[in-house]
Backbone:
């Protein structure tokens, strides 16, 4: 796998249409993706002392964390609206390689901070709701 530029890792939010059009959440400086999975243990006395897991079982989820400088873009305003309303919407993560992940996410945390005479920055966390597809 070739090295990829971190600045090409983009978070995009849908516009609410079907099918959605995605807009980049502007001002991001860092973005992190975590794929989580719970294992279902099916170990029996016939496992010979080794743990056995059931493939395809359990709960899978995707978590996204991002931080950046607030620019007031329409995409940022949309994300803030979802955070305040507790609504789930379509999001896309895109990578320099052209790979994309799409799914529905809930904004579970949105923090704003700023220093006197400095820019306003924010951090946000998203949790998947339903399947996340790799395109």
Residues:
């Amino acid at each position: 796998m070739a090295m990829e530029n971190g600045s090409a890792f983009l978070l995009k939010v849908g516009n609410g249409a079907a099918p959605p059009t995605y807009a980049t959440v502007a001002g991001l400086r860092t973005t992190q993706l975590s794929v989580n999975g719970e294992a279902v243990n099916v170990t029996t006395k016939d496992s010979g002392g080794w743990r056995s897991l059931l493939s395809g079982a359990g709960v899978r989820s995707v978590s996204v964390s991002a931080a950046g400088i607030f620019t007031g873009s329409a995409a940022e305003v949309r994300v803030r609206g979802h955070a305040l309303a507790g609504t789930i919407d379509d999001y896309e993560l895109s990578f320099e390689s052209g790979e994309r992940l799409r799914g529905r996410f809930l904004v579970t945390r949105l923090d704003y901070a700023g220093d006197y005479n400095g820019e306003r920055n924010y951090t946000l966390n998203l949790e998947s709701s339903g399947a996340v597809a790799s395109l």
